[in-house]
Design brief:
Blueprint: E1 2-9, E2 14-21, E3 26-31, H1 40-43, H2 46-49, H3 51-55, E4 59-64, H4 67-74, H5 79-104, E5 112-117, H6 119-130, E6 135-141, H7 157-162, H8 164-167, H9 174-179, E7 183-188, H10 196-208, E8 213-217, H11 226-240
Parallel strand pairs: 3-4, 3-5, 5-6, 6-7, 7-8
Antiparallel strand pairs: 1-2, 2-4
Helix pairs in contact: 4-5
């Protein structure tokens, strides 16, 4: 039920890996954490936590390399290049990864689900907001949504277009109309290393533009750890699938 595909992305100017678990069901793209690869979610048992939904054909889970996140953490190249790569990463997801998922799912035409934890949550929310014609909903878990701080506070055009906190306040037209038909769930614990304030900040920006969203607090017993996301992801997939 697992497959791995790899190709050279001209957008990213490097290879990109797409892993899949399951044969049938709603296609879900699970972004890894900041420096993770396509199989990080399996090694950390997030796939196992979702296995009842996968094995019964309700969802197919996909994951990719966190290309932009890995360079962000390593602080390789200039800040401008790192932000360029972030913008390109989202573009590659919409125009390379999503079509590959649809083809693998028999030409599935509906909205894909994007999910992720920490920086993965940022990417999940970002791709839904940027490409509502591709993605139908986002599941953001323990999200780190204000990514500007990870780029030494730099502000460039690439950051503006990649970050919902920056581009959503000025968004109008068909993209916003489509987004108002989408849904974003923002889940966060309030235990160690969690900051639910980031989720509320995104919710305020989404709500101000009339984009359906919900913040779920899991309370102080849930830290910024994999076992929190093991509990969260199957619950929200069960709700959306």
């Amino acid at each position: 039920m697992k497959s791995v595909e790899r190709w050279y992305s001209s957008r990213l100017q490097q290879h990109l890996t797409l892993a899949r678990w399951g044969n049938y069901g709603l296609p879900v793209l699970v972004f890894p954490t900041a420096g993770g690869d396509a199989e990080e979610v399996e090694r950390n048992n997030l796939i196992g936590a979702c296995w009842p939904l996968i094995s019964t054909g309700r969802v197919k889970l996909y994951s990719i390399d966190s290309v932009a996140g890995a360079i962000m953490l390593a602080k390789e190249h200039s800040v401008e290049h790192r932000l360029w790569l972030l913008n390109q990463f989202h573009d590659a997801v919409a125009h390379e990864v999503a079509p590959a998922m649809r083809l693998d799912s028999g030409g599935y035409r509906g909205g894909l689900i994007a999910a992720g934890a920490s920086i993965g949550a940022f990417n999940a929310v970002a791709v839904v907001c940027r490409y509502p014609e591709v993605f139908g909903a986002a599941i953001g878990m323990s999200g780190s949504y204000d990514v500007q701080r990870f780029y030494d506070g730099a502000f460039t055009q690439d950051l503006y277009f990649a970050s919902p906190l920056h581009f959503l306040p000025g968004l109008e037209g068909e993209q916003l109309d489509a987004l108002r038909e989408r849904f974003v769930v923002l889940a966060s614990g309030e235990g160690a290393h969690e900051n639910i304030g980031e989720s509320w900040r995104v919710a305020d920006v989404l709500g101000a533009k009339g984009i359906p969203n919900r913040v779920d607090s899991w309370g102080p017993d849930w830290p910024h750890e994999w076992h929190t996301w093991h509990a969260m992801l199957p619950r929200y997939l069960d709700e959306l699938a």
